[in-house]
Amino acid sequence: MPLDSPFYVARPSDERLRSPQPTVTLRGERQTGKSSLLVRLREQVRKDGWRSCYLNFQNLDKVSFESPDALFLELARMTVDELEVDADPDAAWLPRRGAKRNWTRFMEREVLARPVDAHASPLRRGRPRLRERRLPL
Fold first, then answer.
1. What is the pTM of this model?
2. 12: burial class by Cβ within 10 Å (0-12, 13-18, 19+)?
């Protein structure tokens, strides 16, 4: 749906997402405006001078889900591609560190040199428990 569409229905959750928060999870039935809300949020953070990254888990192949290391490494590759960061996750990844430590180290040292707003699509294969705040749509 275009950003200026007269058919978009603004919700109270739209405004709440504009304030800094830890992790936010949007849940709702199909065709209820989750993606439209993310598009608007992404546009707003870009206007505010932040970089924005959309990680679409639905585009990951089966190999990416074979291990935590494979998943986090692929997410790091997607992130540098999306943000056009000149960094090589494969070169920075060391198996002895473990997936989460590699991911954190790579993101802190190679990607987060300035503010980034990262969004992720729904993961339908299950996901690890994260600290989150749910916003009803």
1. 0.65
2. exposed
Q: Running DSSP on this structure, what letter comes out for residue 35?
A: H
The contacts of residue 70 (CB under 8 Å, 6+ apart) are 63, 64
Cβ(72)–Cβ(64) below 8 Å: no
- With contact defined as beta carbons under 8 Å apart, do 137 and 33 qualify? yes
Nearest CA-CA partner of 80 in 48, 112, 102, 49: 112
Rounded mean pLDDT of 71-85? 92
Four-point Cα dihedral 89, 91, 92, 94, nearest 10: 110
More confident of the two residues 68 and 2:
68
Q: Per-residue pLDDT for 121 more than 90?
A: no
Rounded Cα gap, residues 88 and 46, in angstroms: 24
Q: Is a pLDDT exceeding 90 seen at residue 39? A: no
Neighbours of 40 (CB within 10 A): 18
